[in-house]
Write a structure and sequence with these properties.
about 180 residues, alpha+beta, seven-stranded mixed beta sheet, 7 strands, elongated, disordered N terminus
C-alpha cells in the first residue's frame, strides 16, 4: 500500500515531472487547515565527521479538518512521530552527499466504527528538498488499521504512526536514488 515517487531512474516508482511535483507540493501546502510553524529540527549528523550533512524535519502540516479527527493535535503528533522515525534510521550508512529537509503532511485520516470494530486509514506524504531547496522526491505511506475497542483516537493514532513509518523508512532509498 505504500509507494514513493522519485526521479525517473526508479523503475518501480511512479515519477512526477518537475511541474507535476510542484503541483503536488502546492496542493499539500495550500488547503491545509492546520500548519505547524516551520521549525528546523536537526535530527543529528547522518555521516561521520563534524561537518557531515544532516536530515532535518523542516515542517509538518495536515490537510485533515481538525473536527474530522479524534486526535487532539494532529500536527504535533505528526511532528513527534516523524522525528522519532527519522532518528531511528541509520543515516550514517547512507553516505549522503549533502543536507536534506523533509516536509511531512497528513493527506488523509478517516475512521469508522462498525459494532465493536474500529477502522482507520491514514496517508502521509513526505517531500525531500536538498539544501538549495530543490525538490528531490516525494514518498507516501498509507495504512489501514483495525482494532476492537471503544476509542477511535487509539486506532487513528495507530494508523497515523504506521503511515509515518511507511513514508519515513522509504526516504533513505529514495534519497540515494535521487542523489
Amino acid at each position: 500500500m505504500d509507494r514513493f515517487h522519485a526521479a525517473p531512474r526508479l523503475r518501480s516508482a511512479r515519477a512526477f515531472t518537475p511541474a507535476a511535483a510542484l503541483l503536488v507540493v502546492s496542493a499539500l501546502a495550500l488547503p491545509a487547515p492546520s500548519v505547524a510553524a516551520p521549525r528546523a529540527a536537526a535530527l543529528g549528523p547522518v555521516a561521520a565527521g563534524a561537518s557531515s550533512p544532516q536530515v532535518t524535519l523542516a515542517e509538518v502540516n495536515t490537510m485533515v479538518d481538525p473536527a474530522a479527527t479524534h486526535l487532539p493535535d494532529l500536527t504535533d503528533l505528526l511532528r513527534q512521530s516523524a522525528e522519532t522515525e527519522l532518528r531511528a534510521i541509520d543515516w550514517g550508512k547512507e553516505r549522503l552527499r549533502r543536507g536534506y529537509k523533509v516536509s511531512a503532511a497528513v493527506t488523509r485520516l478517516e475512521s469508522v466504527r462498525e459494532g465493536r470494530t474500529l477502522r482507520a486509514s491514514c496517508a502521509v506524504s513526505a517531500a525531500v528538498r536538498d539544501e538549495r531547496g530543490a525538490l528531490l522526491v516525494i514518498v507516501e505511506g498509507r495504512v489501514r488499521a483495525e482494532e476492537e475497542g471503544s476509542a477511535l483516537a487509539s486506532v487513528e493514532r495507530g494508523a497515523l504512526e504506521g503511515a509515518v513509518h511507511g513514508a519515513m523508512h522509504r526516504l533513505p532509498e529514495a534519497i540515494r536514488n535521487a542523489q
